[in-house]
Design goal:
By secondary structure, this protein is mainly alpha-helical. It has two domains: 1-50; 57-89, no CATH class. 59% of the residues lie in helices and 0% in strands. It has helices at residues 12-24, 29-43, 57-72, 81-89. It is elongated, with a radius of gyration of 24 Å. 0% of the residues are buried.
């Protein structure tokens, strides 16, 4: 194995907060980054789910439109799949 250096830039506060967590786990930044890189290789991709938790403007608008339609047309909602399936079979 031949070692090489990896230089990255990050926000100082992000680095400090991450170091505290890694130290509490008994590791340093180098070990944590190596774990991430090796897991990335093993998983053949980013080893965690990347998601957007907050809907964008288009999605928010669609959600609001759906709510308005449901209220205006007095659409019945369902709280479980069984009731929905029964209603769809009618």
């Amino acid at each position: 194995m031949v070692n090489t250096n990896l230089n990255i830039r990050t926000d100082k506060e992000v680095k400090n907060q991450a170091e505290k967590i890694f130290n509490a786990l008994g590791m340093n930044m180098t070990t944590a980054v190596n774990i991430f890189l090796k897991t990335t290789i093993r998983e053949n991709g980013i080893p965690f789910r990347l998601t957007l938790d907050v809907p964008n403007a288009t999605t928010r608008s669609a959600i609001e439109e759906g709510k308005r339609i449901a209220i205006d047309k007095k659409v019945k909602g369902y709280t479980n799949m069984t009731d929905l399936r029964v209603a769809l079979e009618k």
